[in-house]
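To the wet lab folks,

You asked to see what we're planning to order before we commit. Fair enough. Below is the target structure as tokens, and below that is the sequence we designed to fit it. If anything looks off to you, flag it before the synthesis order goes out.
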């Protein structure tokens, strides 16, 4: 499969991506800027794709170790090459495997923070991409919301956090799944395309074995006016942390 090498201003990252396969969007950047990673923490990314979220967090945070779990062998191999391309082998590790078999992949309570940009759509809702990489990234072909939340619950130590970006229309389902798995929603931020538009996405952070109580943060707007120009807040997210 033909690949491109794309550059990100965040930490001068370079990213190998399939020219006609899965390519990352704005969503991982929004999630990486939403989370608060503390010094020495272990972070696990569920459904890591080409490794974009662990790579971003390696540049943006003082995490000790960042692990990315990816089911598709071709994507997992590309993610490993991206880790090497950026010289981050000492902090970032890609684990090829199925998050539905999380108990065979990583020990219980082994993570301080779990992050994910999971597939948004259930099978039968929306057009499924003919390209396998993109299909699995967008639709729940190999694990649905329950699987991602259950995997996070297994991985987190008590007090550990789970942060993800998801469809706003599925927020009730997401919150219900978190609570059912012992993860209490603590932070929530709605993402709107424009100020006059309804929210399309939502950023949520939950904490394992925590007391109830959620903080709803100010809305995040992606575009200025009617055009495709990013707002100042989004543009600032792409600035190099240095």
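Sequence we intend to order:
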């Amino acid at each position: 499969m033909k690949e491109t090498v794309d550059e990100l201003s965040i930490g001068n990252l370079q990213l190998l991506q399939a020219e006609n396969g899965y390519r990352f969007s704005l969503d991982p950047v929004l999630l990486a800027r939403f989370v608060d990673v503390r010094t020495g923490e272990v972070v696990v990314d569920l459904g890591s794709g080409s490794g974009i979220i662990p790579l971003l967090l390696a540049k943006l945070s003082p995490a000790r170790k960042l692990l990315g779990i990816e089911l598709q062998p071709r994507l997992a191999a590309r993610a490993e090459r991206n880790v090497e391309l950026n010289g981050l082998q000492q902090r970032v590790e890609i684990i090829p495997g199925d998050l539905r078999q999380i108990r065979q992949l990583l020990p219980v309570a082994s993570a301080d923070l779990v992050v994910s940009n999971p597939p948004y759509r259930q099978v039968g809702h929306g057009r499924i991409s003919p390209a396998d990489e993109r299909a699995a990234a967008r639709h729940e072909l190999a694990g649905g919301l329950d699987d991602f939340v259950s995997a996070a619950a297994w991985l987190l130590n008590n007090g550990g956090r789970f942060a993800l970006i998801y469809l706003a229309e599925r927020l009730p389902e997401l919150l219900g799944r978190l609570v059912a798995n012992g993860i209490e929603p603590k932070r929530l931020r709605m993402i709107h395309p424009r100020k006059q538009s309804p929210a399309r996405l939502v950023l949520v952070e939950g904490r394992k074995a925590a007391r109830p109580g959620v903080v709803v943060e100010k809305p995040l707007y992606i575009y200025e006016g009617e055009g495709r120009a990013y707002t100042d807040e989004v543009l600032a997210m792409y600035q190099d942390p240095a």
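Structural context that might help your review: The chain has one domain: 3-182. The domain at 3-182 is CATH 3.40.50.150 (Rossmann fold).

Thanks,
Computational group
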